[in-house]
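Late entry, written up from scratch paper. The run itself happened at the end of the previous shift, but nothing got recorded in the book at the time, so transcribing now.
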Amino acid sequence: MTSETLRIAGARVLARTALLGPAFVAAVAYVDPGNVATNLTGGASYGYLLVWVVVASSAMAALVQYLSAKLGVVTGRSLPELLGERLPTVARLPFWLQAELVAIATDLAEVVGGAIALGLLFHLPLLVGGVITAAVSIVLLAVRDQHGQHTFERVVTGLLLVIACGFVAGLFVEPPSVGGIAGGLVPGFAGSGSVLIAAGMLGATVMPHVVYLHSALARDRHGDVPPAERAGVLSTTRLDIGIAMALAGLVNVSMLLLAASALHGGADTTTITGAYAEIARNLGKVIAVLFAVGLLASGFASTSVGCYAGAVVMQGLLRKRVPLLLRRVVTALPALGVLAMGVDPTRALVVSQVVLSLGIPFALVPLVAYTSRRSVAGDHANARATTVVAAVVATAIVALNVALLVITFSS
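Output as recorded:
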């Protein structure tokens, strides 16, 4: 192979690598503090039983995020923009309201998670930690506004790596049971409580707000690509999503395995604070601090991404722009109110994930419909097999949500 050939090949690799990034922003939403709460609760309460839920959810998430990104690439519009164009006027406001409820639930999980982490690391009161978390998210959003999407993507990717290190480190000290993992890959439940946790884990993994956001990220990055180059961009997009979602899936599985192997079902191990104390006792202070740092990075990164997503939804559905600072303040208020009232923070995190799971169908159904229509996606409309798989995924999620409602209101 000549030096010229190597140079051309290297240039192609660098060009393709430069297109990576949007999926890593989306992936942060899949490792937010809500994931920490639900995965720790699932692992501490049921051991390895729900490993299959995390794995299945991660696979579903990869498919969903690809469809979202593809929509932005081939149409040059975000999912909320397409919904705003096609929904009747009377339906746009209710649709936005449910999406806004999901955004508030998202922010609740992320601000509370950051507050818990700051409390663990620096013994700050939760309310103070919540204010700091919201303030840091403003700084991250200012980075995007002042330095562009590329810089924002790099910062968020760096935080994603910190999150991964924080939650994976403990597994090297307390390796999980190989047999337990193998058994946990077999689908099954252990009573209604495990179904409730599984629904929360699903809501924490397949995130409706980031389904809306990823289409906008892809639109802003690739929406002006000529039709002849879209196939190449979609190939790079699949690589972007594959790497990012594999990393997010690894982190999620690691959380549950850490809880299953190191948190031995004690009375307080289903709370993040209790889990932190148990990790410190069983694995050492260093691992506990890394865990808390990972949680803090999760809170900082995901709350900025969540606020960004809310702005994208409002702009697309209502065609209204609200300054991100104002939006940041408004959506942070419910989370700060929860902290001020002294509500159990871990319980608030788990409940927020249940709310997220109920918002999933509103994002998934139109996403599958639009990406399957040639009138919308053109030559890049889903193949029949892709549409079938996506429809099965959406149906399974809706069915689990129904089960969740039945369990919640009958208990």
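The mean pLDDT is 88.
(Scratch paper discarded after transcription.)
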